[in-house]
Every structure is written in structure tokens, then in C-alpha cells.
Design brief:
Blueprint lengths: L8 H18 L7 H21 L2 H13 L8 H24 L1 H7 L10 H4 L4 H11 L1 H5 L3 H13 L22 H8 L16 H6 L22 H18 L3 H9 L8 H9 L13 H23 L6 H22 L5 H19 L3 H16 L1 H13 L2
Helix pairs in contact: 2-15, 2-16, 3-9, 4-5, 4-7, 4-9, 5-12, 12-13, 15-16, 16-17, 17-18
Length: 404
């Protein structure tokens, strides 16, 4: 049986998240907030399932560029692996730096910095758009002459190491602070303290920041998140609010130069009042980080998140045995799930409609995987009851979740 063992990344990272939470509780450190944790996981879940659909795309691109445009033919040796490691880390530094200083790239990278918590769950806030932007930078490597297999292995390393720098439980690491990116360095990078802004872009090596003048040592306690907290846990708002801000700013710009500055300028070039305007237009209410949710709502969110992660794990693990159409359907199910839990955190009451769609998808998938006539009948019966009593079920659903 050909299993996709990339799926093991899901429980691997989840175990470390739980371990960090356990240690922080034992040390009486408040490093996790419920809504922040769920919102962080939502972004990571969506990226993982989207990555399944795009797996192989950049491998194909790297292979094609190497076959058609490579300047050199670089063989796999100890020396070339070291050179590739240095090249990938240097490219990552510049990709990351542009991700903070160019609006076009910040529009995708901003999602990674929205969490007001800083822990292993915040490391999961990687969007598929961010992964795409990173891949574009790495297209330089096959043109130089490195093959796709080598590049892909280094991509996996670069995707794993930064996870462990997203923690407050590890202090400074002595002489290692002069060479590698440590949790202390990355805490600085994620902070909104004025003196820490746009610093420490390195991924694995801190030497690039020291060479290019963007290094600063952690000396004061960081305050994490954006300079202006988003105040929303909506999956959709978190992903697209800055794109909307850029769209409004672009339309307001009077000249071609001003419009280009919206796209290729930095975040400081965008009028901060635009976000407030959009928040009023979309009636977004600010949700506090320490919001207390009812037990029913909390348990529902936890259950939905766990189920979604299990579905994600099984889908990746058995992806070779699932039809492309069903993978797409499962992807829609997962995306609807993370949108729904994000809306539940914001206490939006329209989530029933999403859950009804999720139920339809579950019904179809159940019959697709287990084509039993009796099961078909039961699914059809429940579907008919759901449609016939839609409003009644909707009302009961809201009462269950949002009543104390």
C-alpha cells in the first residue's frame, strides 16, 4: 500500500504544540489563548490541504527550469549541498525581507504575523500564497544548476526548522545566537515593538541579518502581533483584509506612480484609515483576545477542529487512493470547516449554512466510499429532512451554540 507519509507532519507538529502548552501551564505561563490557537490552526490546516493539491507543481517547475535554462550542471556532493544550503537561506532572507517591505508580498505574509500569541501554533500560520511567493524566489536555484531533488529536500528542511523558533519557552542559546536563528531572534521578528520592526529576517542562519544590517538583539520584552491588532478571528478576513486595503488604496491613487507605489511600496505607504473604513463597511466587531465563550460553543469549536485535523491527516495519508474529484470535495469540506470555526470565534450566527453544506459533502463522500444502497437511502432521507426542516434546525442550532 502506497501511503503518503508527508501526512505524519500533522501529528508530529500537533504533539509539539500540545507539549509546549503542557509545559507552559506547568510553568504558570499564559502563552496560549483559545481563539488565537484555533485561528492559528485554521490557517495551518488550510495550507496543508492546499499544499496537497499543489504538490509537485514547483518540483515540475524546478525540473523544467533546470532542464531548459540551467547555467551550470551541479552534481550532488558534500560541497554542493553546503553551497545549496547557503543559497537557499540567502534567498529565504530576501524573500522574507521583501515580504515585509513590499505590499505585493506583505499581502500574503501578513497572515503569519496576525497572531497576538507567539507559540508553536503561530508557526502554523503559513498560507499557500506565501508558499507560492517563496517558490518564485527559489526558481533562481535550478537556473543556477541545482536539480529539483536537492532543492525539494532543502525546502522540507526550511519548512521544518522555523517551527521550533516560534516559542517563548526557550531562552538565549549562548554562542549559537551568533550563528543560527534562535527563538530569541525570532521573538524580535514577530514583535510590534517600534525598535524591533523589520528586523531579524533570517530563516536558519542569522548571519545574513548581520551582513545586511537588519539584526537586533532581544533586550526588552516583545509585544507580539501587528502594530494594530486585527481583532477578528475570521479565516476569510484574516486572509483578505490587506488585499482589500490595497484594492481601495489603488483605486484612490490618482496617478500611475501612486498606483505603482500601492503595489510595490511598503505597508507604511497605505493609509491606516482604510482598514477602519472597511471594518465599518463589513460590520466587523472587534473580538478581544481573552473573550470568554460558552461551554457549548467552546466544545463545538474544539470538536470541529479535531475532526478537521483528522480528516486532513487521513486525506493526505491515503491521497494516492482517493479520486481527484473527491480530494477537491474534501478540500472544500476542510475550507468550509475552518471558515466556520473562525466565524464561531467571532460569534457569527450564519455558520449553520456552512455546516449544512459540510453535511451534504459528508453525505456524498460517505456514499462514494461506501456505495451501499441502504446507506444511500439513509443519506437521502436525512438530506430530505434537513431541507424540509431547514429553518427549524437552523433556529435550534443557533440556540444550542449561542445560548448560555
Amino acid at each position: 500500500m502506497k501511503l503518503n507519509y508527508i501526512a505524519l507532519a500533522v501529528p508530529f507538529f500537533a504533539i509539539f504544540m500540545l507539549l509546549e502548552y503542557y509545559i507552559s501551564v506547568k510553568k504558570n505561563k499564559k502563552l496560549h489563548h483559545f481563539n488565537e490557537t484555533v485561528a492559528n490552526l485554521n490557517v495551518g490546516i488550510a495550507e496543508r490541504i492546499a499544499d496537497l493539491l499543489t504538490t509537485g507543481t514547483f518540483f515540475f517547475v524546478f525540473s523544467w527550469l533546470h532542464a531548459n535554462f540551467s547555467i551550470f550542471s551541479i552534481e550532488s556532493t558534500a560541497t554542493t549541498w553546503v553551497l545549496l544550503f547557503l543559497a537557499t537561506d540567502l534567498l529565504w532572507y530576501w524573500y522574507h525581507r521583501f515580504g515585509h517591505t513590499v505590499n505585493l508580498f506583505w499581502a500574503s505574509h501578513i497572515v503569519h504575523h496576525q497572531s497576538d500569541d507567539f507559540n508553536y501554533t503561530a508557526a502554523a500560520r503559513i498560507t499557500v500564497f506565501q508558499a507560492f511567493a517563496r517558490g518564485l524566489f527559489w526558481c533562481v536555484l535550478p537556473i543556477i544548476g541545482f536539480n529539483a531533488e536537492m532543492i525539494t529536500i532543502l525546502l522540507l528542511v526550511h519548512g521544518t526548522y522555523p517551527f521550533f523558533t516560534h516559542t517563548q519557552l526557550v531562552g538565549k542559546l549562548g554562542w549559537l545566537e551568533y550563528i543560527i536563528v534562535t527563538p530569541s531572534h525570532h521573538r524580535v521578528h514577530h514583535s510590534s515593538n517600534p525598535e524591533y520592526l523589520d528586523k531579524n529576517y533570517g530563516d536558519m542562519l542569522i548571519i545574513w541579518d548581520k551582513i545586511f544590517g537588519t539584526f537586533i538583539e532581544e533586550t526588552t520584552e516583545p509585544k507580539f502581533g501587528l502594530t494594530k491588532s486585527l481583532g477578528s478571528y475570521s479565516f476569510l478576513w484574516q486572509h483578505f483584509h490587506y488585499v482589500l486595503e490595497l484594492t481601495v488604496a489603488f483605486r484612490m491613487a490618482k496617478t500611475v506612480k501612486a498606483k505603482l507605489k500601492v503595489i510595490f511600496g511598503g505597508p507604511n505607504d497605505i493609509d491606516a484609515r482604510i482598514r477602519s473604513l472597511l471594518e465599518r463597511k463589513f460590520s466587523k466587531k472587534t473580538v478581544a483576545i481573552d473573550t470568554k465563550y460558552s461551554k457549548k460553543l467552546t466544545n463545538s469549536i474544539i470538536a470541529k477542529t479535531i475532526v478537521t485535523m483528522i480528516v486532513l491527516f487521513l486525506t493526505i495519508l491515503f491521497s494516492e487512493f482517493i479520486t481527484a474529484f473527491n480530494v477537491i470535495l474534501i478540500t472544500v469540506f476542510i475550507v468550509l470547516s475552518v471558515i466556520a470555526t473562525g466565524a464561531m470565534l467571532d460569534q457569527k450566527k450564519w455558520i449553520f449554512h456552512l455546516d449544512f453544506l459540510r453535511g451534504i459533502i459528508i453525505g456524498y463522500l460517505a456514499f462514494s466510499f461506501f456505495p451501499n444502497p441502504l446507506l444511500h437511502f439513509v443519506i437521502a432521507l436525512f438530506g430530505a429532512i434537513g431541507v424540509f426542516f431547514y429553518q427549524t434546525i437552523h433556529s435550534k442550532y443557533q440556540d444550542f451554540l449561542f445560548s448560555n
